[in-house]
Structures are given as structure tokens and as C-alpha cells.
């Protein structure tokens, strides 16, 4: 297999958006309880935060974390989650058929996020609640004091405002599964008026309108159009959500998932820009891709042995393989390729629930295979995103059509001169020889080169798990050369590689 890539420092997509490498903590399954929070665990600190998980989250370095849902938020009364713990009610969570104890809430999340060093992206409930409750919450979090809800925060022990900048106007309101699901018109009016009222309290907030829950939604396209016609002046972003899985043995389509993500992004950009043109607006609406991942959604959601209405049941604790890690790498590449318009990204979710990390109650924590590409791109994509001029072998995928064998994205850090390539080889059997034209960068050496693939005694289904938590991880890639401005990299079959030159 062969691919040829040409890069030039003058041809850029734009700067790497800081918020592109976010994640998501939902009150769902064991993401919060026995995920990030487990009082009584040997590694818990005095606030109940699991420090083993905290340490791994710091290593991953999510730049923004969306909270508290997800489908959960559409039935959530935020007031239940603040104030003295002993007085917080246990509530039914209709979205995930479980019991929410509210022992971890707004203030605890804010403290945890500060410990991690990440920004909070807060979602308001536009399913069962509306404008006034969203405004009350914003007054509680962002208003200095001297009013009912800001004084309530102070009475709860948090003197300074939490100063949350990023707000989602509901979650997946186009989905019939959503508690309080709405038509595009119903949602558009509610989101516009809620956003407008919130801005009257804090004009500095940034607002995300719900887009489509997937590109396959029957309302995809018309939903974005209707919502943005109504909300264009009020919001800054429209959201995209996408989950991919290998189904019916069609690994070729699964590996081409980023082809679908590329198209999804480009179609939403086109729709937003069409509304811009029709409305003669000046600003551009960007995309907040605030839920994306591999999710084996067609498998049952719950552990069938779990009782209904449990606290923190085991829900969608997918165990990720080598193949899944390669696909996650290509999804990160897709976000990077569109970094001029996708300026927020949240991988879903952080721990246990389709998690980057896994943790066991009273047990260990470990990084899933998919954590590795996330961590690498988060830390190594620096400076400017480069346009990648690519040619080479391709294949036809059943679901998404034409796909390149080698999926690529690249960045250039003008400060250090480092060029970083993110490369996936989608061929299951054969290595791929990639030639990279780097003239113009003055690169003289290979700084680092790693690859993640099935090693000895492993195959593409190999996972990291409690028994073997580090089975799959990036290892040194030897087959890299740089001569006279041209690099040659040989990628192992079905692999995710990161190579840096300077
Ligand atoms: O991330 C899991 C769920 O997927 C979220 O709650 C919801 O928004 C989406 O459907």
C-alpha cells in the first residue's frame, strides 16, 4: 500500500483550537459514581475524588469537559444537586432508568474540574424545564452576589462565581428518546428566547444550540436550518453528535467512519453558512462536536443482570480494541482537518461509560486503547493545522463509499518548527508506505515516532482490561527516514501512528 502526502507551511487550515480536545462527564452509569467520585475508595481524597482517575485525567488533558449530560440533563433539576449533601434528594433518572443520589453536584464538579485544570461546559435542561430555570442556574453560577440565587451559592459555601463561559441549550432535542423531545420549531423558539434571556444576565457567555444527534437523523439538515434561522444572532455554535460501531462484520465501513464525520461536518457548515447568507449575518456559526466516539450501540444498554432503578448501574461499559483505537484516531484527524469550523470537541465519555478510562469500584483504574490516540493528539497537535495534499491507494466501503487507505492530519508549530503527522493505516493485512513532502519546513531530524497496532500474540480485537491494562499502547516506530525534505514512514497494518519532524 502507498500514500503520498505534501505539506507546506503556507497552506494552513487555521490554528489548533484549544477546545477541540474535550471530553464529557454525564450522570450516567458509573461515569460519576465509582468513576471520578468514590468516597471510601483507597485512592479517594477527602472530597471523594478518585486520585488514581484524577491523575489519568490530567495525563489525558481534556481542555473542556461537558456536564452533567447528555440525556440525563433533560430531566435534571439542578437545585437538587447543590447545598448540604444530607438534604439533597434521591431522584429518579428517567433517561437511564437509575437513581440519582445527588451526592455529587454542581459545586463538586466545579472543584473537580479546577483540580483537573479543565474548562466546564454546562448544559441546561430544555427538556422538562425552560427559560427561567436556565436563568436561575446561570445566576447561581455566574452572578457575583446580592440576588436570590447568587446568595444561595454563597450560602452554600462558594463565595466567588464559578464563571462558566460555555453553555449548551439542552441536549439532543431532535431525538424522540429525549425526555421533553421537541420539533425543530418548538426547540428553535425555546433556545432563542432562553439564550437571549441568559445573555441579559451574562453577556460574555458562549451558547451552543442543539444540532442533530447524528447525520442519519430523519430531520438532519432541516433541523439545523430551522434552529439557526431562529437562533443565529443568539448562539455561537451548533452541535454535532456521532457514534460509530462495527456492525455485521463490516470492518471496512467501520474503519471509514471518519469519511462520514468529514461529510457530516461539511454539511453542517454548508447549512449554517446558507442561513448566514439568507439572513445577511456577519458572524459565522461554528461547530461544537460535543459527543463523538465509538459506541457499540446495537448491543444492549444495560447489564441484563442489573436491577432497574439502581444507583450507578453498569451501563454501556464498552471495552475498546486495537481497531477501535485506530478509528478513534481517524475521528480525531477529522476534527483536526476541520479545525477552522469545529472549534469545540468533546469525546464521550471520560470514564466507564464508553470511557477513555475504566475504573472498578474498590478496584483499579486503567486507560482503554482509545485513550492513547486522544492523549497523543491532545498534547502533540500544536500551532497551525496544515492542509494535507494526499494521493494514494483507496478502497470502497459499503456504508460510506470511497476511503483513503491512509488517513492523515498534520500540524506545524512555528515556535519550535515541529511538524507532527497523525496517520492511520486502514489496511488490515498490509503495511502502508507513506512518502511525505516536507520541503519548506527545513526539517532535519525525526523527533519521535510511535505506533499503536496489534503486537505479538495480539490481534485487532485485543483490548486493555483489568487483567492486562497496558496490553495496547503506542510503541516506538522504527521505520521512519528523512532525507532531503522527503520523509518515508512505513505504517504497520491496521495502525495509528504519530511522527514528528523538526
Ligand atoms: O453519551 C451517551 C448518550 O448519547 C448521551 O446521554 C446522549 O446525549 C447521547 O445519545
UniProtKB/TrEMBL annotation:
Its EC number is 3.2.1.55. Homohexamer; trimer of dimers. Pfam families: Alpha-L-AF_C, ASD1_dom. It comes from the Bacteria. GO terms for biological process: L-arabinose metabolic process; polysaccharide catabolic process. This is non-reducing end alpha-L-arabinofuranosidase. One of its GO terms (molecular function) is alpha-L-arabinofuranosidase activity. Keywords: Carbohydrate metabolism, Glycosidase, Hydrolase. Signal peptide: none annotated. Residues 290-495 form the Alpha-L-arabinofuranosidase C-terminal domain. Residues 452-475 are annotated as: Disordered. Belongs to the glycosyl hydrolase 51 family. Gene3D superfamilies: Glycosidases, Golgi alpha-mannosidase II. It catalyses: Hydrolysis of terminal non-reducing alpha-L-arabinofuranoside residues in alpha-L-arabinosides.
Amino acid at each position: 500500500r502507498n500514500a503520498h502526502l505534501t505539506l507546506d507551511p503556507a497552506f494552513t487550515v487555521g490554528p489548533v483550537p484549544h477546545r477541540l480536545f474535550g471530553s464529557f462527564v454525564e450522570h450516567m452509569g458509573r461515569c460519576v459514581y465509582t468513576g471520578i467520585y468514590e468516597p471510601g475508595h483507597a485512592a479517594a481524597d477527602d472530597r471523594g475524588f478518585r486520585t488514581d482517575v484524577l491523575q489519568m485525567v490530567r495525563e489525558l488533558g481534556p481542555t473542556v469537559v461537558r456536564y452533567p449530560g447528555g440525556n440525563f440533563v433533560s430531566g435534571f433539576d439542578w437545585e437538587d444537586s447543590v447545598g448540604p449533601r444530607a438534604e439533597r434528594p434521591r431522584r429518579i433518572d428517567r433517561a437511564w432508568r437509575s437513581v440519582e443520589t445527588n451526592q455529587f453536584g454542581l459545586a463538586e464538579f466545579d472543584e473537580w474540574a479546577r483540580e483537573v485544570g479543565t474548562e466546564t461546559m454546562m448544559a441546561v435542561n430544555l427538556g422538562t424545564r425552560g427559560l427561567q430555570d436556565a436563568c436561575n442556574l446561570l445566576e447561581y453560577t455566574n452572578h457575583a452576589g446580592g440576588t436570590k440565587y447568587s446568595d444561595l451559592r454563597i450560602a452554600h459555601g462558594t463565595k466567588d462565581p464559578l464563571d462558566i463561559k460555555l453553555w449548551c441549550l439542552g441536549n439532543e432535542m431532535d431525538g424522540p428518546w429525549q425526555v421533553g423531545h421537541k420539533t425543530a420549531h418548538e426547540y428553535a423558539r425555546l433556545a432563542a428566547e432562553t439564550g437571549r434571556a441568559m445573555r441579559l444576565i451574562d453577556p460574555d457567555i458562549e451558547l451552543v444550540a442543539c444540532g442533530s444527534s447524528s447525520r442519519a437523523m430523519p430531520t438532519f439538515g432541516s433541523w439545523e436550518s430551522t434552529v439557526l434561522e431562529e437562533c443565529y444572532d443568539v448562539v455561537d455554535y451548533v452541535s454535532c453528535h456521532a457514534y460509530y460501531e462495527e456492525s455485521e462484520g463490516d470492518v471496512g465501513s467501520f474503519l471509514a467512519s471518519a469519511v462520514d464525520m468529514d461529510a457530516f461536518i461539511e454539511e453542517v457548515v454548508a447549512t449554517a453558512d446558507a442561513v448566514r447568507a439568507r439572513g445577511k449575518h456577519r458572524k459565522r456559526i461554528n461547530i461544537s462536536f460535543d459527543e463523538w466516539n465509538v459506541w457499540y450501540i446495537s448491543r444492549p444498554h444495560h447489564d441484563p443482570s442489573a436491577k432497574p432503578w439502581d444507583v450507578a448501574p453498569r451501563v454501556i461499559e464498552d471495552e475498546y480494541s486495537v481497531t477501535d483505537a485506530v478509528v478513534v484516531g481517524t475521528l480525531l484527524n477529522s476534527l483536526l482537518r476541520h479545525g477552522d469550523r469545529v472549534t469545540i470537541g468533546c469525546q464521550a465519555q471520560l470514564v466507564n461509560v464508553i470511557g477513555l478510562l475504566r475504573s472498578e469500584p474498590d478496584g483499579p483504574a486503567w486507560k482503554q486503547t482509545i485513550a492513547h490516540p486522544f492523549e497523543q493528539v491532545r498534547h502533540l497537535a500544536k500551532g497551525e493545522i496544515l492542509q494535507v495534499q494526499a494521493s494514494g491507494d483507496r478502497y470502497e466501503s459499503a456504508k460510506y463509499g470511497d476511503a483513503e487507505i491512509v488517513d492523515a492530519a498534520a500540524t506545524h508549530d512555528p515556535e519550535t518548527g515541529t511538524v507532527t503527522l497523525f496517520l492511520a493505516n486502514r489496511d488490515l493485512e498490509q503495511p502502508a508506505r507513506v512518502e511525505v513532502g516536507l520541503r519548506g519546513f527545513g526539517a532535519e531530524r525525526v523527533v519521535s515516532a510511535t505506533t499503536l497496532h496489534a503486537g505479538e500474540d495480539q490481534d485487532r480485537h485485543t483490548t486493555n482490561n483489568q487483567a492486562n491494562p497496558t496490553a495496547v499502547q503506542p510503541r516506538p516506530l522504527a521505520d521512519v527516514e528523512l532525507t532531503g525534505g522527503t520523509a518515508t514512514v512505513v505504517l504497520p497494518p491496521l495502525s495509528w501512528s504519530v511522527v514528528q519532524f523538526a
